[in-house]
Design brief:
Blueprint (H helix, E strand, L loop, with lengths): L1 H44 L4 H4 L2 H14 L1 H33 L1 H16 L6 H8 L3 H25 L3 H9 L4 H12 L1 H26 L4 H10 L3 H37 L1
Helix pairs in contact: 3-12, 4-5, 4-7, 4-10, 4-11, 6-7, 7-10, 8-9, 10-11, 10-12, 11-12
Length: 272
């Protein structure tokens, strides 16, 4: 009887949980639809100036025109490729440096003030220098992306490493574990949520770096479309390119969120 009561309560809880999750999804998409609908209605009724603020239908028409001409995928592929390269390099370099600084506390203390300064430095100020050093090509854009993303990733991951309980490390060392074993068995598994959070931040920073770089030197890409549209007062083009950027950034974010969910499920199964 007790088992049946427990099973009924668990089923009721799962039903409430699923209803709440569905409600969240419906409300999330409903808010987006409401925003787009009000935007379109305001433009059609003359409440806003569609030349200055565009409208969903005008943006869709602009995107369709780019698609028909074949330009859309060209610009998307350029920006997406630069972002992926910058994101992967920035993540690997940031995580690798975080491991190095965790490994050597002396080196971490020596470099700490420089990391703070680099993190607060407005990277766009180095744009003209990067153009001189790297040329006006993909190299300058990827370098700008690295400058913006790597320090954020490094600081976030290193903070997660340092938050691991010292008592656990002391216990492992008392059993003769090496520093590498402590890192692999305790520090890295315990910091996986922080690493995933750093990847989420890295995605946003990578997009910022690529768009800033394309503003400065690119002749193709979504950032180039935004700059070109602003220069010739084609604000529909500016808004359409911005909307496409939002979609691509959201897709990359959801990929990392899916990875995070899988890791949580795996950790839960392991714990179980």
């Amino acid at each position: 009887m007790l088992v049946e009561t427990h099973s009924a309560a668990q089923s009721a809880f799962l039903r409430r949980y699923r209803r709440r999750e569905r409600l969240i999804v419906y409300v999330r998409w409903g808010l987006l639809a409401l925003f787009l609908g009000l935007w379109e209605l305001s433009a059609r009724l003359g409440w806003i100036d569609p030349f200055l603020l565009s409208s969903p239908s005008r943006m869709a028409a602009t995107a369709a025109s780019l698609f028909a001409s074949g330009e859309l995928f060209t610009h998307i592929s350029v920006t997406l490729g630069e972002t992926l390269v910058g994101f992967l390099l920035g993540s690997l370099l940031g995580i690798g440096l975080a491991v190095l600084l965790w490994w050597s506390k002396t080196l971490s203390r020596i470099l700490d003030p420089y990391l703070v300064i680099l993190n607060s430095l407005p990277k766009i100020a180095l744009g003209p220098v990067l153009i001189v050093w790297m040329g006006s090509g993909v190299e300058a854009i990827v370098t700008m992306t690295l400058l913006i993303s790597v320090i954020v990733t490094l600081c976030t991951v290193l903070g997660g490493f340092n938050e691991v309980s010292p008592e656990k490390l002391t216990l492992l060392r008392s059993f003769g574990a090496s520093k590498w074993q402590c890192f692999c068995k305790v520090v890295l598994p315990g910091s996986l949520p922080t690493v995933v959070s750093a990847l989420k931040l890295g995605i946003g920073m990578s997009w910022v770096g690529v768009i800033v770089g394309e503003f400065l030197v690119s002749r193709a890409g979504l950032g180039y479309l935004i700059v070109y549209g602003g220069q010739v007062f084609k604000l529909d083009l500016v808004m359409a390119a911005t909307a496409i950027l939002c979609v691509l950034a959201a897709l990359m974010y959801f990929c990392i969120a899916f990875l995070e969910k899988r890791l949580r499920d795996k950790r839960g199964e392991t714990a179980g």
